[in-house]
C-alpha cells in the first residue's frame, strides 16, 4: 500500500506522481539544485517572535530564547480577509535556518494555501544565534515543547480564543525528526512543560527526507561519495558552534579549533551528545532516532505523512521502507496515524519536478500543502 509513488495516496492528495525535472536528474543534482541555481524569492516580511526556552539539563547552555518568524497567509481574491486555515510550525534541517531557500519556499506555498506559518530557528541557528547558547539536536524536546505550547496560544490569537485554528507541523530533514520525537515525548517530559495527557501535541504533521535512524544516516554521509557533503555540513556546524556569543567550554574549543572533527559522528560525539545529556554518541543516536518508537507505538502521533526518496544520498531509505512494511498490513484493519510516501527519485529534500513554479513550490511542497489542507478545513469568517 505504501509502495513507491503510491497512486491511492496521491489520488487522495490530488497530486500527480513525481517526475524529475530536467536537467536535475539523479539524487545528487536534485539535492544540490537550490544551491546551484537559487530562486529569487520575495523579501522576508516575517514578524519576529522570541520564545523562551529553559537551560539544557546537562548545564551546557543557560536559559534563553528561540527566534521564530510569523508569516500571515496570502489573501486570495475570493477571500481577501479570510482567517487562516491553520498555523504550521516549520522546522529547518541540519545547518539550516528560517532563511534557507527550501524552507522559505515551503512556507510561501503554505501561505498561498491559506496557512499562517511559524518558521523556527533552532538553538544556535542564525538569525537567533544571539538569543540562546548551545546548539540543537535531533531530540530537543525541552526546546520544542515550549515552542509548541506558544504556537498553541498563537492559534487562538490568529482568529479568536473561542475557536482557535489547528496547529500543524512540517519539518525538513532533521527538522522532521525533531517534530516526530516531540510528538512521541514521554508523559513525564510532557508534564514538565504543562502537557498533561497523551493527546497529540499537533493536529497534523508532514516530514520530508527526515532521518529515522541516525546511526545509519551518519554512516551514509561518511561514504567516500559523500565527502563533499560532509565537509560542507561540518564547516557550517563548527562555525555555528564557535560563533556562540555565550561562549564554548575549553574542551569544546580544543576539539573544534586545532584539528576539527572529520565526520558528523565525531562532531556529535564531541558536541551534540554531551550537550544534550547523552553518555555517548551511540546513546545519542539510539535515543534520538524515532524509528524504534514508530515501529512499536504511534499512539501519540497526529495524522503524519513521511516523504522519502529512494535515491536520497544523505538519508538511507531503508528505515522508511521498514516503517512502510510494518504499516501496510495494519492499515487493512483501519486507519493508522502514520502514512509513508516513497518515491524512486527526488534526492534529499529535492523533489524538483516539471510542474514547479515560484508560487506553487516544488513537488514536495505541494504534497505538504495538500496533506495539511485535508487536515484543516477552512474556518468560516
**Overall pLDDT metric:** 91
How is the CATH topology named?
Rossmann fold
CATH class annotation: Alpha Beta
Give the helix/strand class. alpha/beta
Q: How do the helices and strands line up, and which of them pair or pack?
A:
Layout: H1 7-13, H2 27-36, E1 47-53, E2 64-71, E3 87-91, H3 101-112, E4 116-120, H4 141-158, E5 167-172, H5 174-183, H6 187-192, E6 204-208, H7 214-221, H8 227-242, H9 250-257, H10 264-275, H11 281-287, H12 291-296, E7 304-309, H13 318-330, E8 338-343, H14 363-374
Parallel strand pairs: 3-4, 3-5, 5-6, 6-7, 7-8
Antiparallel strand pairs: 1-2, 2-4
Helix pairs in contact: 3-14, 10-11
Fold and architecture overview:
- With 381 residues, this protein is α/β, with parallel strands linked by helices.
- The chain has one domain (7-220, 286-374): 3-Layer(aba) Sandwich (Rossmann fold), CATH 3.40.50.1820.
- 38% of the residues lie in helices and 13% in strands.
- It is built from 14 helices and 8 strands.
- It has helices spanning 7-13, 27-36, 101-112, 141-158, 174-183, 187-192, 214-221, 227-242, 250-257, 264-275, 281-287, 291-296, 318-330, 363-374, and strands at residues 47-53, 64-71, 87-91, 116-120, 167-172, 204-208, 304-309, 338-343.
- The protein has an 8-stranded mixed sheet, with helices on both faces.
- α3 packs across α14 (363-374) and α10 (264-275) crosses α11.
- The longest helix is centred in the middle third of the chain and has 18 residues, at 141-158.
- The chain is globular.
- The model has no long low-confidence stretch (mean pLDDT 91).
Amino acid at each position: 500500500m505504501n509502495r513507491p509513488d503510491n497512486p491511492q495516496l496521491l489520488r487522495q492528495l490530488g497530486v500527480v506522481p513525481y517526475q524529475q525535472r530536467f536537467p536535475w536528474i539523479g539524487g545528487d543534482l536534485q539535492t544540490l539544485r537550490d544551491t546551484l541555481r537559487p530562486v529569487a524569492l520575495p523579501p522576508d516580511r516575517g514578524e519576529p517572535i522570541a520564545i523562551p526556552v529553559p537551560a539544557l539539563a546537562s548545564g551546557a547552555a543557560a536559559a534563553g530564547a528561540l527566534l521564530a518568524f510569523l508569516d500571515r497567509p496570502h489573501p486570495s481574491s475570493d477571500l481577501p480577509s479570510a482567517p487562516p486555515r491553520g498555523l504550521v510550525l516549520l522546522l529547518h534541517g541540519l545547518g539550516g535556518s528560517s532563511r534557507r531557500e527550501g524552507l522559505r519556499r515551503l512556507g510561501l506555498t503554505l501561505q498561498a494555501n491559506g496557512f499562517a506559518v511559524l518558521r523556527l530557528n533552532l538553538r544556535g541557528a542564525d538569525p537567533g544565534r544571539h538569543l540562546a547558547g548551545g546548539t540543537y539536536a535531533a531530540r530537543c524536546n525541552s526546546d520544542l515543547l515550549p515552542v509548541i505550547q506558544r504556537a498553541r496560544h498563537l492559534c487562538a490569537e490568529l482568529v479568536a480564543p473561542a475557536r482557535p485554528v489547528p496547529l500543524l507541523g512540517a519539518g525538513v530533514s532533521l527538522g522532521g525528526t525533531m517534530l516526530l520525537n516531540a510528538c512521541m515525548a514521554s508523559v513525564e517530559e510532557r508534564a514538565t512543560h504543562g502537557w498533561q495527557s497523551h493527546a497529540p501535541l499537533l493536529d497534523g504533521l508532514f516530514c520530508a527526507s527526515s532521518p529515522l535512524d541516525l546511526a545509519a544516516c551518519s554512516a551514509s554521509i561518511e561514504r567516500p561519495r559523500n565527502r563533499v557533503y560532509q565537509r560542507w555540513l561540518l564547516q557550517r556546524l563548527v562555525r555555528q558552534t564557535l560563533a556562540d556569543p555565550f561562549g564554548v567550554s575549553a574542551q569544546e574549543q580544543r576539539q573544534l579549533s586545532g584539528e576539527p572533527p572529520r565526520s558528523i559522528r565525531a562532531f556529535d560525539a564531541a558536541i551534540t551528545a554531551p550537550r544534550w545529556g547523552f553518555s555517548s554518541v551511540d546513546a545519542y543516536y539510539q535515543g534520538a532516532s524515532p524509528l524504534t518508537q514508530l515501529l512499536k507505538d504511534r499512539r501519540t502521533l497526529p495524522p503524519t505523512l513521511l516523504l522519502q526518496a529512494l535515491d536520497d544520498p544523505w538519508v538511507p531509505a531503508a528505515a522508511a521502507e521498514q516503517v512502510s512494511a510494518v504499516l501496510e498490513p495494519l492499515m487493512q484493519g483501519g486507519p493508522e496515524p502514520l502514512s509513508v510516501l516513497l518515491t524512486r527519485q527526488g534526492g534529499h529534500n529535492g523533489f524538483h519536478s516539471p510542474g514547479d513554479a515560484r508560487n506553487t513550490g516544488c513537488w514536495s511542497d505541494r504534497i505538504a500543502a495538500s496533506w495539511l489542507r485535508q487536515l484543516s478545513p477552512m474556518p468560516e469568517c
